[in-house]
Design a protein that fits this description.
The chain has six helices and six strands; from the N terminus they run H-H-E-E-H-E-E-E-E-H-H-H. The protein has helices at about 5-25, 30-35, 55-65, 135-145, 155-170, 175-180, and strands at about 40-45, 50, 70-80, 85-95, 105-120, 130-135. It is globular, with a radius of gyration of 18 Å. The protein starts with 6 loop residues before the first helix and ends in an 8-residue tail after the last helix.
Length: about 190
Amino acid sequence: MTTLISDEIRKSRQKLVLDHFHDEVRQEWDDVLATFPHPRYELIPTMTVHDGDAAVRGYYRHSRRAFPDQDHEIIALRHSDDAVIVEFWLLGTHLGPLGAIPPTGNRFRVRMTAYFVFDDDGSGGENLVCERIYFDSLTLLKQLIGGLNLRNPRNWPLALRCLRGLLKEAGGTPDPALVNTPKATLS
C-alpha cells in the first residue's frame, strides 16, 4: 500500500489529535476548538451534527453537564491518507441530564472510534475538518439505565423518567448530511 502523506504530516496530525483529546479532558474548549479551522462534530449513533463554534460549544456544555468527569483511555491510533482513526474507551459518571434522560449516578465505559478527518485541498493535509464519532448507544444506555436496581421501589420513578426521556430522545430527525451521502468511488 502506498501512502500519500509524509511522516512529517503523520506526526503533525497525531500531535494535533492527541492535543485535542487532552484538551477535551481538561475542558479547555478554546484550545480544542483551535484544532479546527471550522469546528464540526458528527455523532453517528444519534445522527446529529454540531457545526460551527457555537454549536460545538453547546455540544461540549451539554455533554459535560451530563458527564462532568468524562475521560478516555486510548486503545489504538491509526493513520490513513485523510484521517487519524482513534479507538478508545470513553468513561464517566452520569451526574446531569443527557438530553431528556435524567441523571442516574451510574458509571459508564463504552468503546468508541473517532475519525479525525483532514482536508485534501493541497495545503499539506493539516486542516482538521471533522471529528466523526461511532459508538454503540445501546451499550451506553444499558450502563446508565440498566444499572438501576429495579427491585427497590424507590428507583421506579427514576426508571420511568429515564424511559420517557429515552423515548423522547429516540424521536429525533437524522441530520441530512449524515443520511444523504454520496456513493463511494472505488477503483
